[in-house]
Every structure is written in C-alpha cells, then in structure tokens.
C-alpha cells in the first residue's frame, strides 16, 4: 500500500512538473512576442501584418542542432482564383542583433513559391516570414526556435581558407520542371544555389588574436532566367556561413544567371544551363 501511494505521489509530481514546464515555455514564447511588437513599426511602419493562415507556411526546427546553421523553408500558395501575386518576402529573427535576415523580391506573376535557406539564431526567438502581396497586404507565418549563440559562433573555417575560396559558386537543379505543363505539380523547377563566403557577422572572435572579426557578408543576390528576374535578395548578418538558397521557378528553357556581391564590394557570378 505504501509503495502504491509512493508511486502515485511520484507520478503526480512528474505530471505537475511537466505541466509547469509546458506553461513556462508557453509563457516564454508569449513574452517573446513583445520584441516583435517593438520591431514591427521599424520594419513595416503602421501597415497591418495579418496571420497568413494556410497562405504562408514556415518550417523550422523547434530546437536547432546548430544555432549558426538553422534550416528553414517557406512556402507561399495563393488559392485558385486569387488574382493577387507574391511580390516580396521578408525573413525576420526577432532576437537577433540585426533582426531582418533577408528581403526577397520576386519577378513575374508568382502565385506559388518555395524558398529554403539557413540562418543564424542568436537566442530563443520567433522566426517570421512576411509575404507582401500585390494588393499591398502583409501575410505572416511564424515559428518559435530554441537556439542560442548563432551570431557569435566561430566560423567553421579559418579566415585564410575562407577568403581564399570566397565567392566560389555552385548551382544545381534539384527538381526539374516540365516546360509548357499547366499543372501546379509539374510546372515548377527548383534550384539550389551555394556561395562560398564566411558571412562574418561582426560578433565572432578570432580565436588567435582574440579580436572581433569585422562584419563581411553577402548582401545582394540577383537570379535571372534569360532577362527575366526570378528573385533578388538583400541580405544581412543573420544568413549563415556559405549562403545556401533553394528556390522554385517556372522554367522557360533559358539559362539561369546569378549576380551576387558582398559588403566589401566583391562581385560573384554563376550560370546554370539549361534552366529546364
């Protein structure tokens, strides 16, 4: 009888602890939203930002394995018959020193798109994807990510090796699209773009000199198919080392050309042909 009571008491304590931890986590997430309320006017002014519901989805790990390389994926899908198009996508990490990780502008009339990349997360934070549609509305998806130290984490390569290979670019077609196919399932292709670059945040310390490494990062990327814009990006320190983008596009058979640059004025170019 005593043993049964002891087991019951232990079970109740464990259940109480789990409830308390869950409540604490929820409270922490709710409190973290205060940062967003302060940030929002600086980024979007007085424009309302709506919960996107199914229009925009953001996929990210709840707890990141590596805070300096957190994989995220965003999908935007407007419903059939919706005449609006997707013009821009802003990626935000609330608690990072520079919260706006990147802003993407899309060419053409995009009703559907997929975009994946890797970011730095400096402390437990909401990650947000805000899509701007052609009617001017802002649609947001968000995800709370548990990670810390991503912006100050040491680079994986030493500075000499990183600078020696800086700007090397690789593109590959990860999903072919069917030219002339009108179905949503088959008409989109997907490309992965990788650029060798340390993307120094300005918060990382040289392990030998113990001095901070000046910020140096890829701040612009433009991807065209022939003369038509697929997407352009304005980036910041929250993108990971060796920037990596995957994005969908509707192939026309023309080659894809990439023009990129960093904050030191370097320029990098690459091509993938054929595009579809």
From TrEMBL:
<keyword id="KW-0732">Signal</keyword>
<protein>
    <submittedName>
        <fullName>Quinoprotein dehydrogenase-associated SoxYZ-like carrier</fullName>
    </submittedName>
</protein>
<feature type="signal peptide">
    <location>
        <begin position="1"/>
        <end position="29"/>
    </location>
</feature>
<dbReference type="InterPro" id="IPR030831">
    <property type="entry name" value="Fuse-rel_SoxYZ"/>
</dbReference>
<dbReference type="InterPro" id="IPR032711">
    <property type="entry name" value="SoxY"/>
</dbReference>
<dbReference type="InterPro" id="IPR014880">
    <property type="entry name" value="SoxZ_dom"/>
</dbReference>
<dbReference type="InterPro" id="IPR013783">
    <property type="entry name" value="Ig-like_fold"/>
</dbReference>
<dbReference type="InterPro" id="IPR038162">
    <property type="entry name" value="SoxY_sf"/>
</dbReference>
<feature type="domain" description="Ig-like SoxY">
    <location>
        <begin position="42"/>
        <end position="151"/>
    </location>
</feature>
<dbReference type="InterPro" id="IPR014756">
    <property type="entry name" value="Ig_E-set"/>
</dbReference>
<feature type="domain" description="Sulphur oxidation protein SoxZ">
    <location>
        <begin position="182"/>
        <end position="272"/>
    </location>
</feature>
<dbReference type="Pfam" id="PF13501">
    <property type="entry name" value="SoxY"/>
</dbReference>
<dbReference type="Pfam" id="PF08770">
    <property type="entry name" value="SoxZ"/>
</dbReference>
């Amino acid at each position: 009888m005593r043993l049964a009571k002891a087991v019951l008491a232990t079970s109740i304590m464990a259940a109480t602890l789990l409830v308390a931890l869950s409540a604490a986590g929820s409270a922490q997430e709710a409190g973290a939203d205060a940062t967003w309320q302060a940030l929002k006017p600086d980024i979007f002014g007085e424009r309302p930002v709506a919960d996107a519901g199914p229009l925009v989805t953001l996929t990210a790990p709840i707890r990141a394995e590596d805070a300096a390389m957190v994989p995220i994926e965003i999908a935007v899908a407007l419903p059939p018959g919706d005449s609006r198009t997707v013009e821009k996508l802003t990626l935000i990490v609330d608690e990072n020193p520079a919260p706006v990780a990147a802003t993407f502008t899309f060419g053409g009339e995009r009703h559907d798109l997929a975009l994946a990349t890797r970011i730095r997360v400096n402390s437990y934070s909401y990650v947000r994807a805000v899509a701007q549609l052609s009617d001017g509305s802002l649609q947001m998806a968000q995800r709370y990510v548990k990670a810390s130290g991503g912006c100050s984490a040491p680079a994986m390569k030493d500075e000499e090796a990183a600078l020696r290979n800086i700007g090397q670019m690789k593109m590959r077609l990860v999903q072919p699209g069917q030219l002339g196919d009108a179905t949503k399932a088959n008409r989109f292709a997907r490309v992965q773009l990788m650029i060798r670059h340390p993307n120094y945040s300005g918060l990382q310390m040289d392990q030998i000199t113990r001095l901070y490494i000046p910020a140096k990062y890829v701040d612009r990327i433009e991807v065209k198919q022939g003369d038509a814009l697929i997407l352009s990006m304005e980036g910041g320190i929250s993108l990971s080392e060796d920037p990596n983008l995957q994005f969908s596009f509707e192939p026309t058979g023309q080659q894809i050309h990439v023009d990129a640059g960093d904050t030191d004025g370097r320029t990098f170019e690459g091509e993938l042909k054929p595009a579809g």
